Amino acid sequence: MPLAGNRAARFQAVRALTEALAAPLSDADATLQSMEDASPAKWHLAHTTWFWETFLLREQLPGYRLFDERWPFLHNSYYEAEGARIARDARGLLSRPTLAEVLAYRAHVTAAMEPLLDDPAHADLIDLGMAHEQQHQELLLTDIKHALWCNPLGPAMWQPPSPSGERMGEGPVADPAAATPPSPTPPLKGRGFVWHSQPGGIARIGHQEPGFAFDNEGPAHRVLLEPFALAARLVTNGEWAAFIADGGYGDPRLWLSDGWAWVQREGIAAPLYWRDGDHFTHAGWQARDPEAPVTHISFYEADAFASWAGARLPTESEWEAVARGQQGEVAAHDPAGGNQLDGAAAPLPTGSDGLFGDGWQFTRSAYLPYPRFRVAEGAVGEYNGKFMSGQVVLRGASCATPRGHSRASYRNFFYPHQRWQFTGLRLAQDA
Questions:
Q1: 61 and 106 share one domain
Q2: Maximum CA pair distance of the chain?
Q3: For 83-193, where are the alpha helices, taking DSSP H only?
Q4: Contact at 8 Å (CB) between 259 and 282?
Q5: Nearest 5°: CA angle at 108, between 105 and 110?
Q6: How far apart are CA 244 and CA 288, in angstroms?
Q7: Strand partners, 203
Q8: Alpha carbon distance 112, 401 (integer Å)
Q9: Residue 123 located in a structural domain
Q10: CA–CA separation, 155 vs 238, rounded Å?
């Protein structure tokens, strides 16, 4: 779902937001790389600029000269067609260029893009570039959170919210516990959840609406959904604490074999950033709200919790079928073949509250191509397709996802052990 306004205005807004998110950071902060999965904030600022320079300005603007001919080697991510690049785990060694030089690079490229922004011939690539930069806005936030957490001082990027729930100081807050208080959740009875039953049927899944979507969101295709139920909300911190107290991390019967090996090897005993009754946020260490959605868990942990709760993770098709109505998208129906299950017509799932914005929700679906998927030609074809191996799909959006970036067909994906993103879960069960 695009931001409001014309393409040039949206481009300027996206570029400005990236810089606003990085504004609280010093040059030293912005250079930190705390692990291979994460990148320095300074690198995100430069890489998103390299994207515009490489795929639009260099190719489409006559007479354009690279800002610095040495920098593509530093700021290419994984595009083999663009040649050699610095190793991913060495990005934190780049004390130069400085943060100020990277910001000057951004200003230069932003200004140079102006003649291309309203040219319809470049519309698709510009939309891709904006969506790419929005993805890196979320990565900038999650990567710097990990880096600051590694500091024994527990430094804050932003001030914590005031008691009234209003944020003090400048800059967005990117944690559920550091934002406005969460809505109350229904009282639990043991391991009980409120469930929304769905009748199943033949659904049409994948991007179907006008506007931008990533290539991995299509083509639209039909799936058969057996009757199922989806929990009314995400699992909370309090429920996760009950899982821990019940010995969830010590019971191999709950875990996939790879997950149990990971728990044993890494000494995992709680979600990332948990410490006693606190957790680490962009506002430093804060008291953990038991009613807030649990985040920073791996697929292995999500699957183990679902087993403990007597439930399962939803498939990505189940999740999308429920979510399609929430953002005004085409309902999940099959206009060609109707909606038949066991020979009887059945209504398909409708929209449901709370599916977007608190945390990315694990599904049990492997990240694989949809039927008839084709990789795009050229270097941009490396964007998604080559990663369709060994990863799992997450749906929804998180508190760090730029608003306007999410949609029902959006497919996020991570390896099963990764948990530095705002990843949570919503339970499902068979009817």
A1: yes
A2: 68
A3: 99-112, 123-149
A4: no
A5: 105
A6: 15
A7: 223
A8: 27
A9: yes
A10: 25
CA distance 228 to 209: 26
Pairing verdict, β 360-366 and 228-231: unpaired
Give whole-number Cα distances, 61 to 122, 337, 377, 387, in Å. 11, 47, 21, 31
396, 356 contact by CB (below 8 A)? yes
The residue among 294, 3, 284, 312 whose CA lies nearest residue 153 is 284
Q: Are 191 and 69 members of one domain? A: no
| C-alpha span between 405 and 399 (Å, rounded) | 12
Range(s) of the domain holding residue 13 = 7-149
Residue 158 domain flag: no
Separation between Cα atoms, residue 221 and residue 370, nearest integer Å: 8
The structure tokens listed for 342 are 């066991």
- The answer as to whether 156 is a domain residue is no
Going residue by residue through the chain (431 aa), what tens digit of pLDDT does each one get? Answer: 333 349 999 999 999 999 999 999 999 999 999 999 999 999 999 999 999 999 999 999 999 999 999 999 999 998 888 999 999 999 999 999 999 999 999 999 999 999 999 999 999 999 999 999 999 999 999 999 999 999 999 999 998 876 544 332 333 334 433 433 333 444 343 366 889 888 888 999 999 988 899 999 999 999 999 999 999 999 999 999 999 999 999 999 999 999 999 999 999 999 999 999 999 999 999 999 999 999 999 999 999 999 999 999 999 999 999 998 666 677 776 555 554 444 444 445 554 567 998 999 999 999 999 999 988 776 566 677 788 899 999 999 999 999 989 999 999 999 999 999 999 999 999 98
Global pTM reads: 0.89
Half-sphere exposure of 167 (CA within 13 A, CB side): 17
Distance CA 364, CA 393 (A): 7
Same domain, 136 and 191: no
Closest residue by Cα to residue 22 from 99, 76, 110: 99
- Closest by Cα among 41, 19, 44, 26 to 110: 19
Q: How far apart are the first and last CA of the chain?
A: 32
d(CA 343, CA 227) in angstroms, rounded, equals 14
What's the domain count of the chain?
A: 2
Are residues 218 and 79 part of one domain? no
Tell me the β-bridge partners of 281: 284
